[in-house]
Specification:
The chain is mainly α. The chain folds into three domains: 115 residues, Orthogonal Bundle (Arc Repressor Mutant, subunit A), CATH 1.10.10; 90 residues, no CATH class; 38 residues, no CATH class. 50% of the residues lie in helices and 3% in strands. The N and C termini lie far apart (72 Å).
């Protein structure tokens, strides 16, 4: 049995609240029975049995739901708009293992829906309907205009920043030439895991967003960003599984380390002594500055 999120605010949504009773039931039925990406192969006989309805009624309800669905050309399959958003699965990222199955689903339905780019498909504009929603004046030929987002950029919207970050990250992961070059420059590093570490620990956070907003660049050079990230010890993950905090430490005598790459107790004590000496010097300098 699969468990899924449901947005309780849908009952306050203009579009959903103006749906007919059976349209609401069908929409919730689709959300429960679609796959993990939001795709559903239309099976009229099953829907008829499950919802105790007739095919003509179901087809009419599909038409009423058209703003919330995307049909393929043969109308044998549908994709539920905003399904991934309400399941907390956007933006999609190949570095997120939970998203790999979803991405594979898009590959499976790629030809059926003529999908060239997953993000473009998910975020495509809503087409006008014969029946209006959200106005409430009884005019069935009017459709609520979409709010213009031409003034929204990665600088003003964190979600757009994340979308651009994911797009650039996935592009680099698919760039075999860049990948081979990085492995040549960093033969001991696990490039993908190191990228993932820098992504999760910093660039996909608001701190990373603020860092980029502090620059004057209109566009972010993510290739250069990841090139630099791979040189920083805090992001480096080695192929043998050792963290850089062990294998790349500059403290202590490297000859005192165990064969696993970890510091010996003697080396740790030496490090603590050096930290103590450094702290004592800082306190002395601070005390002297206060007396001047």
């Amino acid at each position: 049995m699969a468990y899924r999120y449901t947005n309780t605010e849908k009952w306050n949504d203009n579009w959903f609240s103006e749906l007919k009773q059976f349209e609401k039931l069908l929409f919730m039925y689709l959300c429960d029975n679609c796959d993990i990406a939001g795709f559903y192969e239309i099976n009229y006989k099953r829907i008829e049995n499950d919802l105790t309805s007739k095919k003509e009624t179901i087809k009419g309800a599909f038409k009423g739901l058209s703003r919330g669905l995307i049909f393929n050309e043969t109308e044998e399959y549908i994709y539920i708009r905003n399904f991934l958003k309400h399941q907390k699965n956007t933006p999609l990222n190949e570095l997120n293992k939970a998203h790999l199955g979803i991405i594979k689903r898009f590959e499976l339905y790629k030809n059926k829906f003529n999908i060239d780019n997953i993000e473009s498909f998910i975020n495509q504009d809503v087409k006008p309907l014969a029946r209006g929603y959200g106005i409430g004046n009884g005019n069935e030929d009017i459709v609520t205009p979409l709010k213009s987002e031409t003034n929204i950029t990665w600088r003003t919207d964190f979600e757009i920043y994340i979308l651009e970050l994911n797009r650039a990250t996935n592009k680099l992961l698919a760039d075999s030439e860049w990948f081979s070059e990085r492995e040549k420059f960093h033969p001991s590093l696990d490039i993908k895991l190191s990228m993932s570490k820098s992504y999760k620990d910093f660039w996909a956070t608001e701190a990373g967003w603020k860092n980029k907003k502090a620059t004057k660049s209109k566009e972010i050079d993510w290739k250069r960003t990841y090139n630099n990230a791979l040189t920083q010890k805090m992001n480096q993950v080695y192929k043998n599984g050792n963290s850089n905090l062990q294998s790349a430490s500059n403290f202590g005598n490297p000859n005192n380390r165990t064969n696993t790459g970890r510091l010996t107790p003697e080396d740790k004590r030496a490090n603590l002594q050096r930290f103590g000496e450094m702290a004592e010097r800082v306190l002395q300098e601070y005390s002297a500055s206060q007396l001047q």
